[in-house]
Write a structure and sequence with these properties.
- Residues 23-185 form the Metallo-beta-lactamase domain.
- The protein has 218 residues and is an alpha/beta fold.
- 19% of the residues lie in helices and 27% in strands.
- The strands form 3 sheets. Strands 1-2-3-4-5-6-7 form a 7-stranded mixed beta sheet, with helices on one face. Strands 8-9-10-11-14-15 form a 6-stranded mixed beta sheet, with no helix packed on it. Strands 12-13 form a two-stranded antiparallel sheet.
- The radius of gyration is 16 Å and the shape is globular.
- The protein starts with 5 loop residues before the first strand and ends in a 6-residue tail after the last helix.
- The mean pLDDT is 92.
Length: 218
């Protein structure tokens, strides 16, 4: 696998999984003069140069507490604003951050939506470009068949709340407003694609009532 970020859609780039964030995938959205980094890529020379060559970073969005990585170094390098849901801002005590409750409009085309469950402040980033792209962090990740699902793990904060957040996304969007999903983890199951097409159809097909009955030992 290449160690360099690459385009997955026009103006959207995916970084290789980052060990600092337990193998999570970060994305860069290039939107005119606003460059939005969704979670933290590995802070190495290649990624630093990649971001610099594309005009730096305007906003760094942390979609969940596990995506913080080298946020401090990224803000120091680019002077970017950091956005995180208010319940997890305490994890960045020495940094200048912007917080939000339910939603935050970054630009006329891009919003951040609170989707609690995986973690208390878990959120997704939605871009109206490309027919609608949802950056789902660890809220929705691909399974072994490459289909987006909520995944209950030992780190899940509140499983039923996570399913309610999935239902809210399903009710918020439709096939005309949600075309792609860019997950923040498990991207190896996409076999190099790092993007899930027909995202709304997959979201609508989830049997949330059956998932609600999922139990575990934690």
């Amino acid at each position: 696998m290449s160690k360099l970020a690459r385009a997955v859609l026009d103006t959207i780039f995916a970084f290789p999984p980052n060990r600092d964030t337990l193998g999570a995938t970060a994305y860069l959205i290039v939107e005119n003069q606003t460059h939005i980094l969704v979670d933290c890529p590995a802070w190495d020379q290649e990624n630093q140069q990649f971001l610099q060559d594309r005009g730096g970073v305007s906003w760094l969005i942390i979609t969940h507490r596990g995506g913080i990585g080298k946020a401090k170094e990224i803000q120091a390098a680019f002077g970017c604003q950091i956005l995180i849901q208010e319940q997890e801002a305490y994890l960045l005590p020495d940094l200048e951050v912007t917080t939000f409750q339910q939603e935050f409009n970054l630009t006329p085309q891009t919003q951040v939506i609170w989707t609690p469950g995986h973690s208390p402040g878990s959120s997704c980033v939605y871009s109206q470009t490309q027919g609608g792209v949802l950056f789902s962090g660890r809220h929705l990740v691909p399974n072994q068949q490459g289909l987006p699902v909520p995944l209950r793990t030992s780190k899940t904060f509140h499983w039923w709340r996570q399913l309610r957040s999935v239902a809210l996304l399903r009710d918020r969007f439709n096939p005309n407003t949600l075309n792609y999903l860019c997950p923040g983890a498990n991207t190896g199951f996409l076999y190099g694609k790092r993007v899930i097409a027909q995202a709304y159809q997959h979201l609508a097909a989830l049997d949330l009532e059956a998932l609600r009955l999922v139990t575990g030992d934690w």
